[in-house]
Write a structure and sequence with these properties.
The chain is mostly helical. 72% of the residues lie in helices and 0% in strands. It has six helices and no strands. The chain starts with a helix and ends in a 19-residue tail after the last helix.
C-alpha cells in the first residue's frame, strides 16, 4: 500500500524526510517559511507552492483512503476462511486448530487496523491543511521540536 501511495504522490511521501535534525540553514529557513505560510493561511491558499503541497498531501491520503478498506475486506475474507477452517478441523488436531485460530485473530486485528487507517485518512482528505501544518510543526509524534503541541502558543 505504501508503494502505491508513494508512487501516486511522491512529493508528499517524502515530506517526513525533511523533518528532524538538520545542519542545513537553507532547509531550516525554507521549513520556517512553510510553517509561517501554513500558519498565516491555514489552507495554503494564495501561495502556489503551498497549494501544490496541500493538494499532493491530500492525494497521498486519498490513495490510502481507497486502499485501506480494500485491504480490510481482503483481511476480513482471510479471517472468515481461517475461522471456517478452524471450525472444520477435528478437535484432536489441536496444533492445526491453534494455527487457524491465530490466523483468524490476526486477520481480524489487521482488519480493524485497516479500518482505523481508512477513517484517519478520510478525515485528512476532508481537510488536509491542518494535518500538513501539524507535520511541519512537529512531525508524526504530535510534538514539535521545542516540546509543545502543534498549534499551541509557547508560555
Amino acid at each position: 500500500m505504501a508503494n502505491i501511495q508513494g508512487a501516486t504522490a511522491p512529493f508528499a511521501s517524502l515530506l517526513p524526510m525533511l523533518m528532524g535534525d538538520s545542519d542545513d540553514a537553507r532547509l531550516d529557513e525554507t521549513l520556517d517559511q512553510v510553517r509561517q505560510g501554513m500558519a498565516d493561511n491555514h489552507s495554503g491558499g494564495g501561495v502556489p507552492a503551498l497549494d501544490v503541497m496541500v493538494r499532493d498531501f491530500q492525494v497521498y491520503h486519498e490513495v490510502m483512503m481507497v486502499l485501506a478498506p480494500v485491504m480490510a475486506v481482503a483481511f476480513l475474507a482471510l479471517a472468515v476462511y481461517a475461522w471456517r477452517r478452524f471450525a472444520r478441523t477435528a478437535r484432536e488436531d489441536r496444533r492445526t486448530r491453534r494455527v487457524f485460530a491465530a490466523f483468524g485473530i490476526a486477520a481480524l486485528l489487521v482488519t480493524v487496523a485497516a479500518l482505523v487507517v481508512a477513517v484517519a485518512n478520510t478525515t485528512t482528505v476532508v481537510d488536509p491543511a491542518p494535518s500538513l501544518a501539524a507535520l511541519f510543526d512537529g512531525g508524526w509524534s504530535f510534538r514539535s521540536v521545542n516540546g509543545r503541541l502543534p498549534g499551541t502558543a509557547q508560555r
